[in-house]
Amino acid sequence: MLPGGRTEGEVFAIPQFSLMQADVEGFLHELRGFHETFRDCFARREPREQFFGYMVGQFSVLERKSIEPMAGQVDGGNVRAMQRLMSAVVWDEVPMRRTYQSLLNDDLGDAEGVLIFDARGSQGGTGHRPLRNQKIPRMASPYAHLPVGPFLSLAHENALG
Fold first, then answer.
1. What does the DSSP 8-state code read for residue 115?
2. Is beta strand 114-118 parallel, antiparallel or unpaired with respect to 151-155?
3. First CA to last CA across the chain, in angstroms?
4. Which helix (H) or strand (E) segment is 34 a member of?
5. Are residues 70 and 121 in the same domain?
6. Do residue 8 and residue 69 come from a single domain?
């Protein structure tokens, strides 16, 4: 799941799982469909295509998920174009957010449910002081050395099954 160099010396075991080719057949097609829903958020074809290459690269088995290795691994990948996508291309953020929220609503939305996002541990926001390196009392948790971070949960009567 993670490269060995990123897991050496870890205090807690990272759960392992194995995927067979049959488990991921059709994934690229599904990812392309997901990408197509954001088509109108890009003014030009090149950034839109590089965005797809970037997403494919994020799902690759590469140890380094930076732009140069990803661009070299994906069809049509171009290092400079992908760098430009991340640094200079203006994304139409409002329709992108609306599209994503619509997809999220289609998958998780229900009048009887609620999605909870607690960003107390994240940076940003106005009048917001991030809680960095907050300690949980040792008696309360074996995870006391971990910093507080963003938390996402789903509350719904059918959420567990």
1. E
2. antiparallel
3. 25
4. helix 27-36
5. no
6. yes
In which element (H, E) is residue 5 found? none
Written as six digits, the tokens of 4 are 């060995």
Domain that holds residue 66: 4-87
Q: What is the pLDDT of residues 112-149, one digit of tens each?
A: 777 677 665 544 444 444 444 444 444 444 544 455 55
Residues 6+ apart with CB under 8 A from 38: 48, 51, 96, 99, 100
What is the phi-psi region of residue 127: left when phi exceeds 0, alpha when psi lies from -120 to 50, beta otherwise? left
Domain count, the chain: 2
Distance between CA 145 and CA 133 in Å, rounded? 8
pTM assigned to the model? 0.59
Q: Are residues 59 and 28 in the same domain?
A: yes
Q: Does residue 26 lie in a domain region?
A: yes
**Do 75 and 16 sit in the same domain of this protein?**
yes
CA distance readout (Å), 8 to 15, 31, 59, 67, 147 = 14, 31, 22, 24, 20
The token pair at 77 is 């990948």
